[in-house]
Each structure stands twice: as structure tokens, then as C-alpha cells.
């Protein structure tokens, strides 16, 4: 089986980053509200736990996963092909 190409790695990494944000962002919001000194309900309860997810998801695609995986994969395949 051939190794995935640069574009496939880019898309797969970006989708992985966005998926993580969509799953963990609301859980982190709930955790922060549970730790609030004013209490869970006064801090907002379950209202708006997805507020801010779109900007976090859009930022996570190029920030780490979408660029990191292909850029790490490309040099290693080029280096090892010359050995």
C-alpha cells in the first residue's frame, strides 16, 4: 500500500484537529464552569457551551494538525530515500 500524498495528509490532519475541537471544547467549557467560584448555574450552566467553537475549529485546521503532519512527513520521506 502506498503512503498517502501530501494533500491527503493535509486534509486528514486538518479534519482530526477540527474533530478534537468539536468534541473537547464543550467539555472544557463545562469543566471551567464547574470550577467557577460562583457555581455552575450562575456561571452559565449548560447554556452556550458551543459558543466559540467555530473560531476554535477554524483556527485548529492550519495551526497544528493540518500543517504539522504533512510537514513532518515530507522531509522524512525525502531524507530516507537518499540513504
UniProtKB/TrEMBL annotation:
Gene Ontology, cellular component aspect: membrane
Tagged with keyword Nucleus: no
Reactions listed under catalytic activity: S-adenosyl-L-homocysteine(out) + S-adenosyl-L-methionine(in) = S-adenosyl-L-homocysteine(in) + S-adenosyl-L-methionine(out)
Signal peptide: none
InterPro entries named in the record: MCP_dom_sf, MCP_transmembrane
Residues annotated as transmembrane: 6-27
Keyword set, alphabetical order: Membrane, Repeat, Transmembrane, Transmembrane helix, Transport
Main subcellular localisation: membrane
Compartments it resides in: Membrane
Topological category with respect to the lipid bilayer: Multi-pass membrane protein
UniProt similarity note: Belongs to the mitochondrial carrier (TC 2.A.29) family.
Functional description taken from the UniProt entry: Mitochondrial S-adenosyl-L-methionine/S-adenosyl-L-homocysteine antiporter. Mediates the exchange of cytosolic S-adenosyl-L-methionine, the predominant methyl-group donor for macromolecule methylation processes, for mitochondrial S-adenosylhomocysteine(SAH), a by-product of methylation reactions.
Name of protein: Mitochondrial S-adenosylmethionine carrier protein
Organism: Mus musculus
Amino acid at each position: 500500500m502506498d503512503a498517502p500524498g501530501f494533500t491527503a495528509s493535509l486534509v486528514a490532519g486538518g479534519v482530526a484537529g477540527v474533530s478534537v475541537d468539536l468534541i473537547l471544547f464543550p467539555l472544557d467549557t463545562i469543566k471551567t464552569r464547574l470550577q467557577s467560584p460562583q457555581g455552575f448555574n450562575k456561571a452559565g450552566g449548560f447554556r452556550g457551551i458551543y459558543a466559540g467553537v467555530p473560531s476554535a475549529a477554524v483556527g485548529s485546521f492550519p495551526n497544528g494538525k493540518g500543517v504539522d503532519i504533512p510537514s513532518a512527513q515530507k522531509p522524512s520521506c525525502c531524507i530516507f530515500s537518499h540513504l
